[in-house]
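Session log. Operator J.P. requested a structure for one protein chain; no other inputs attached. Running the standard single-chain path with token output.
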Amino acid sequence: MDESVVVSPDWLASRLEEPTVRPVDVRDPWEYDGIGHIPGAVNVPFDSYRDESDVDRGTLPGPDAFADLLSDAGIEPTDTIVAYDDTHGVFAARFVLTALEYGHDDVRLLDGDYSAWNREYETTTAEPEFEPTSYETDPLSREESPLVGLEAVEDALECDALFVDTREAHEFEEARLPGAVRFDWREVVDDETRRLQSEDDLEDLLAEYGITPDREIVLYCNTARRISHTYVVLRALGYEDVAFYEGSLTEWLANDGEVATGAVDS
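Structure written below.
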């Protein structure tokens, strides 16, 4: 597993004293304050970096708004960010995707979540001390970004791309992109440890669905939250040709895109 993308609790615990390693807790403030958090972590709640008012941009908050969030959290563009939540990493992965899109070079997902960390390491309710910064984003160009829009998805449907739907079975059966395979994002998580399965097990699991590194892959769900987790996992495994349909099925249906329905024979 590529540690420049996903890091273990051991990795983070051994670096908490480094001032440039910045844990970011994306849970609600009441969880961060009341339940506790990783020492030194700053709170950037999920709702603060999600904006559903701009359909052309999906739910990204915009570069200026994101810069304000990281400035208020005392984060510099050169810092190593490690994001976590308490829901197997799905909300934290969305933060990772957002930070990457706005040009932060070193942002990683904590393997596991707060509950996994809490089993082995100490937590705190103490607020970390930091000075606000003047963070400036450097958004990826259209060519650099993994995010794709409606027209690119329409083109990919005419090619040999593999569309991966990360939603639940009932959602998939109600409406899906033609030819898509369903891969529940939670399958990569070990329920007992709350951490990702081993690299070998992940590769075997993905191969069962035809999700292999040699394929052009297009991820989608409903509002691009769940695919964030799958995207980060695939990047950590070295997949290179992975597109991220930010508008997902919400945009597709709003534009009367063709869908398939019903159960799929196993």
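Operator note: The two ends are 30 Å apart (CA to CA).
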